Structures are given as C-alpha cells and as structure tokens.
C-alpha cells in the first residue's frame, strides 16, 4: 500500500510499504477513505517530538471501511464505515473504566520510553512516535486498528466523510478544551490559537453557554474563521494581548483560558522568541510556551487554564507564582476521544455543528509532502487539509 512516511526533519514521503495485517484478536484493518493532517503532525514534521524513526507512517486522524476483523471483535463487521479515535485504548484498565482513554494502561507497548520523560506513560497514539507506542498511522491506504471493539464509532447514516472525520481528534479535542473550563452563563473564555482546534474550542464554548469568546492568533485568515464562529479576535502582532484582555473584561481577565497552541508558539518580541527558539533547538527545553505563559497571566483570579495544545517534555519560565498565588486551576490532557464520540456525532446529526467548516484544502494522499509544506508555512491560507487515498 501507499503510506505517508516520516523521513527526518521537514521530510515526508509517500512510499510503498507492506499492507497491515491482523496481529491480535481485537484488531481490525480499515481501508482509509479520508485522513487529515493535524497541527500536532507539524511537531513531528519539525522534529520536536523525540523517538521518531525514519519510515514511520504518520497520521492519527482517519476514517474508512472495515476490511478485516480479528476473532474477538464482535462489534464491527467487514463493510462497516468507522471513524477511528486517535488514542488507542483497551477499554478494560482502570483508566479506561474511568473514561480516561488517552491514558490507557494497556495500549502503549513502549511505556518504558515514555516513563523516562514523563514519569508514567500515556496511551498509545496512531502515528505519533515510538514513545507513544510506535503504531503506524492512518495517512495511508490501510491501517491496523488495535482494540477495534473499543475505539472506532460506526457511521450508519449517509453523513459525508467531511462531516464526521474530525470526530477522530480535533472536534472532541476542542470540545474537551471548553468542557474543562466549567463554563457558566455569562462567562468570557479566551482561546489562544485560531487553528482548527481553537476554532472548535470557540464553537464548543458557545454551545456550552459562554457569553463571549475571544480568540488570539496572528494570521488574519484564521482569525476570520474564528470570527465567523462568533469569536471576538485579537492579533498578537498588533496588540498587547494582556492589556487588551484586561480592557475587554473590566480589568478582571477572562474566566477561563484555553491554550490551543502548544509547544511551537510564536512570540512578537524577537528577543523572547530567540531565547526559547535557541533553547529548543539545542534541546535544552522542548517547548516554546508563550501561549501558556500568557494564558496563565491573563486568566482572572480563581479561573481555569485549560491546556489542549500539545506539549512534549519540559519548559522554561513557567509562571508558577501567578498560578499559585491567584488560585488558578490548570487542567489538561490529550483528548479522551472515545468519551465524546456518541454525543458529538449526535450534535453533527442534528446540525448543531458542521465540522467541515475548517477544511481549506482537499488533496490526494500522494500530495501529502506538498500538503505538509503548505500547512507548515500557512501558504494559500491553509487551515486544514483532508487527504483522500
Ligand atoms: Zn490531530
Ligand atoms: Zn485501557
């Protein structure tokens, strides 16, 4: 089959690789009909996630048709149409029983690698480094899906791929980011990052009853999409974000702040950007945490900071004093996607949300290398790319 392979920093190639096979009794093999490139794939592309190996198959957002099932998968049959969540979860361990699917205790065969960096291991994730299981991803013609009786959700109506594909990651991730804010009527929520996850966080915050949502980014086209989702916007290259947020909230700060940026944030002050960029390049820190620092500083006293942007390791100059002295709550997590599949599919069916608004480009799988380059450099107002194998 053809698959998008990581071949080193800033290099992906679509290569011929062996077809996946059933390895365990709870596996299924899916013929991928649609897959997407995620902002978090850019952290792999840029070389900031450790334990990638040349030839690793990328992709954790995919859906398709079941073509083979293992003997213990009773919930799916050949021909079923499914969306596959990005965290791989067994459904039986203590974490899974508590709905914490992205920290499943049984799905990461390389837990030891992750334990060295993080203390304990999170779940396996498709196409996201050996530290997170070394699973081949879904930017390919076929993918093996472990624990297929737990993760994938069947799509039984005629909703097109483009409306349901993002159940695999970015829609539930944006939703969980807003959910962690405990939104009450009248709340003001600020969202750093107007990429697709930030755009879904904006939409979710409104669906949960937020009165105002303020979105922060530097790309006018992305801010425009957030505005169409109802947000007020700030361009951090044009205004001082902390001052602006204070002005907009009568000096108090937003009730909750969502970091939908993560480890490769940009900063308008060259000296500050250079400081973290150099430390990151020298691998002295793995993150450039401007969005997170700013989200903490901006949040009102007693508010919540919700982190859904991806971080990989350790960071510098973390404003712990602000967090501690002002009674802030920090919440985070890779999305427990399995928890949200049914309720969000229901909202898509009812028309409460149509996630396809984030798509800016549609390409063939073969064009994935061009897609990564475009998405990284934000060429042609690239917001979200869907690939068709
Ligand atoms: Zn993703
Ligand atoms: Zn589990």
Describe the structure.
By secondary structure, this protein is an alpha/beta fold. 29% of the residues lie in helices and 20% in strands. The protein has 13 helices and 18 strands. The protein has helices at residues 39-45, 94-97, 111-118, 161-164, 170-179, 196-207, 220-228, 241-248, 270-281, 290-298, 320-325, 337-350, 368-376, and strands at residues 2-6, 12-16, 28-37, 56-57, 62-69, 81-84, 87-88, 124-125, 142-145, 153-154, 188-192, 212-217, 232-235, 256-259, 304-307, 329-332, 361-364, 385-388. The strands form four sheets. Strands 3, 5, 6, 9, 10, 17 and 18 form a seven-stranded mixed sheet that branches. Strands 13-12-11-14-15-16 form a six-stranded parallel sheet, with helices on both faces. Strands 2-1-4 form a three-stranded antiparallel sheet, covered by helices on one side. α5 (170-179) crosses α6 and α5 (170-179) packs across α12. The model has no long low-confidence stretch (mean pLDDT 94). The site of one zinc ion has 9 residues, from α2. One zinc ion binds next to α2.
Briefly characterize the structure.
The chain has helices at residues 39-45, 94-97, 111-118, 161-164, 170-179, 196-207, 220-228, 241-248, 270-281, 290-298, 320-325, 337-350, 368-376, and strands spanning 2-6, 12-16, 28-37, 56-57, 62-69, 81-84, 87-88, 124-125, 142-145, 153-154, 188-192, 212-217, 232-235, 256-259, 304-307, 329-332, 361-364, 385-388.
């Amino acid at each position: 089959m053809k698959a998008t392979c990581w071949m080193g920093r800033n290099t992906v190639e679509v290569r011929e690789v062996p077809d996946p096979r059933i390895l365990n009794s709870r596996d299924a093999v899916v013929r991928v009909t649609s897959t997407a490139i995620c902002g978090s794939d850019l952290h792999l592309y840029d070389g900031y996630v450790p334990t990638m190996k040349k030839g690793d198959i990328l992709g954790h957002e995919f859906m398709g048709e079941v073509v083979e099932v293992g003997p213990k998968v009773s919930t799916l049959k050949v021909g079923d149409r499914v969306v596959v969540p990005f965290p791989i979860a067994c459904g039986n361990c203590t974490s899974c029983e508590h709905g914490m699917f992205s920290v499943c205790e049984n799905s990461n065969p390389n837990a030891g690698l992750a334990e060295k960096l993080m203390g304990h291991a999170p779940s396996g994730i498709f196409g996201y480094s050996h530290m997170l299981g070394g699973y081949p991803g879904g930017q390919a013609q076929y993918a093996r899906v472990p624990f297929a009786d737990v993760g994938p959700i069947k799509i039984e109506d005629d909703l097109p791929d483009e409306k349901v594909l993002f159940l695999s990651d970015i829609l539930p991730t944006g939703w969980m980011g807003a959910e962690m804010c405990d939104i009450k009527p009248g709340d003001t929520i600020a969202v750093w990052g107007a990429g697709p996850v930030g755009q879904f966080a904006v939409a979710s915050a409104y669906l949960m009853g937020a009165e105002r949502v303020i979105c922060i980014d530097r790309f006018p086209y992305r801010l425009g999409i957030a505005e169409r989702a109802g947000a007020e916007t700030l361009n951090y290259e044009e205004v001082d974000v902390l001052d602006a947020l204070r002005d907009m909230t009568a000096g108090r700060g937003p009730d909750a702040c969502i970091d939908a940026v993560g480890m490769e944030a940009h900063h308008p002050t060259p000296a500050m950007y250079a400081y973290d960029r150099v430390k990151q390049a020298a691998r002295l820190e793995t993150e450039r945490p401007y969005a997170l620092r700013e989200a903490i500083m901006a949040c009102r006293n007693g508010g919540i900071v919700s982190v859904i942007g991806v971080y990989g390791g350790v960071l510098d100059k973390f404003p712990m004093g602000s967090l501690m002295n002002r009674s802030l709550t920090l919440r985070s997590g890779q999305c427990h996607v399995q928890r949200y599949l049914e309720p969000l599919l229901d909202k898509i069916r009812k028309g409460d949300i149509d996630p396809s608004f984030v798509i800016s480009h549609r390409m063939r799988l073969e064009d994935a290398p061009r897609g990564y380059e475009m998405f990284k450099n934000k060429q042609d107002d690239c917001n979200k790319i869907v690939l068709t194998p």
